[in-house]
Specification:
There is one protein chain. The protein is mainly alpha-helical. The chain has one domain. Helix content is 66%, strand content 0%. It is globular and about 60 Å long.
């Protein structure tokens, strides 16, 4: 009989994603507020989305409302920074 066991790295993966997400968001705030470099802040905030802080096994449409809203606000923040960045060139 073959025994199946849940992967042990799942908890570590969730923790790593949350730490990575938080670190990149804090770094984006540093670039925005201290260095005042909008392009770096925008790029760093976009990279933070790679580290989805929520359970990635759940499809986006089936996630709770607050998780979907949080991620949409995150994307909206990136779009606002993009507009601010492009405003300097117009």
């Amino acid at each position: 009989m073959i025994e199946t066991v849940a992967p042990k790295g799942r908890f570590l993966s969730k923790r790593l994603n949350r730490v990575g997400y938080g670190a990149f968001v804090l770094l984006a705030f540093y670039y925005l507020l201290i260095s005042q470099d909008v392009s770096q802040a925008m790029a760093t905030l976009a990279i933070a989305l790679i580290f989805d802080p929520f359970d990635q096994a759940i499809p986006f449409a089936k996630r709770p409302f607050f998780q979907r809203a949080w991620l949409m606000v995150h994307v909206l923040g990136i779009m606002v920074l993009l507009i601010v960045f492009l405003k300097d060139f117009i």
